[in-house]
Design a protein that fits this description.
Blueprint lengths: L2 H43 L4 H37 L5
């Protein structure tokens, strides 16, 4: 593997990891915020039902993915296309 090829592989790996963080960030943040609000509500009302913590997080993550799905999906497609274009140059 030449120096140029190893640089391309390292750059693709770095961009892939950053893309994974970018794609997973919004649902994780939504789940974190909803979990915090539900936790405060459960502490204030002393209602400790497991479904009360799970269902709102599920709804928040689903809504986040529905709202941001096209944008996140387009970024994944662009990254995949870029990978397919540089694959023939790696030796």
């Amino acid at each position: 593997m030449t120096a140029h090829s190893s640089e391309l592989v390292l750059r693709a790996a770095r961009e892939g990891l950053l893309l994974a963080l970018l794609v997973s960030g919004p649902p994780v943040v939504a789940s974190l915020l909803v979990g915090l609000v539900v936790g405060v509500f459960q502490s204030a009302t002393q209602i400790h039902d497991h479904a009360l913590g799970f269902v709102p997080k599920l709804v928040a993550v689903t809504l986040t993915l529905l709202a941001l799905g096209p944008v996140l999906g387009a970024q994944l497609v662009r990254f995949t296309e870029a990978l397919f274009l540089i694959l023939p140059t790696i030796r």
